[in-house]
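User: I'm putting together a small comparison set for a docking exercise, and I want a reference complex before I start. The sequence is below, and the ligand is pyridoxal-5'-phosphate. Could you produce the 3D structure with the ligand included, as structure tokens?
Assistant: Of course. I'll restate your input first, then give the structure tokens for the complex.
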Amino acid sequence: MSENSYFEQDLTARINKRKEAGLLRSLMVNNHLVDFCSNDYIGFSQHPDLYIPSEKPMASGATGSRLISGNSIIAEETEDLIAKYHDTPAALIFNTGYMANVGLLACLPEKDDTYIYDELVHASIIDGMRLSLAKRYKFKHNSLLDLEQKLRAASGSIYVVVESIYSMDGDAAPLLNIAKLCKQYKAALIVDEAHAIGIFGKDGKGLVNELGMEKVVFARIVTFGKALGLHGAAVLGSANLREYMINFARSFIYTTALPPHYYIQIQEAYKLLPQANRKKLFSLIAVFKDAIKNIQQASFIDSPSPIQGIVLGDNNKAVKLAKHLKQEGFFTKAILSPTVAKGTERLRICLHSFNTEKEIYKLVDEIQVFLK
Ligand SMILES: Cc1ncc(COP(=O)(O)O)c(C=O)c1O
């Protein structure tokens, strides 16, 4: 027996448990399929102007964390550009959206403070809050009533955390009403805009921009790995918040900074954002929503965004439908419980400005064929 066999067996047992439950995750390569799955909503990951746009040679690595040797003029210039674009005093770049949420939420509150969060927020928000010392209470998805109940009972400094567009359901938070409650109960509002950037608001500035709430929201999280087609994220807020995170956000402090050329790509993506074909994206969303009206055998999550959910209410059915679509050349994703609540297992379809009406009609036809 090898030295580590006990540990290997232990892992195998846990993996097998998942397998038996039909929940094993595995990596796939889906290059040749029609993309109805990725977060590349406006096709920027393939944009020719975003391929290594640097004219002069640059270091390939940052050589250290931002606080040691990894800071650069270009990093700070990029943060200024992002802050200006989003009409906020300051921005701080993190290596990923996951790290931005974990860094911000872990360091923000103190022991007697309270987080109140929508039950559907992303895992990175949950993990960040878990690392903090604050109490945590979730409210029912998009329920102002439940949010108010939780606000009434909260103590210390209160932070309310929501997404503007929810990553699994694609629906929007009632941000204006949430902000009203936050004002009434003196709570700070934090909005993750990962799936709204590039799509909603003027020039893709996000839903907070669309609703004119820049001055109301305490902090926003924008990510570059989705509509911007790149990698990384930023927390938007006051100069004070930026300085606080530089001092206390551990996922910012204790990690090697992004390579310098990333900042050029981020700047280029921001320059291109106003030209993205949002009109076509929204017209395809309308085409899709119209086409699925004919499907009787499943329910649909009402979503204004490129993220559309076909609820099948069963892990097995969702997996089988995704498999069927794959055979027909479509890349979609089955989202299973416990990632989503039991009974809401679904097929998640992401629409993109580069999809075609023909592809959408064929996709919907195939879904219908399978469900019949
Ligand atoms: C709402 C939300 N926030 C944050 C993240 C994490 O972003 P990143 O992929 O840049 O780590 C995701 C990614 O799926 C997300 O959906």
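The pocket of pyridoxal-5'-phosphate is lined by residues 96-98, 101, 122, 124, 163, 167, 192, 194-195, 223, 225, 233 (CB under 6 Å). The first helix runs from residue 5 to 20.
User: Thanks, that's exactly what I needed.
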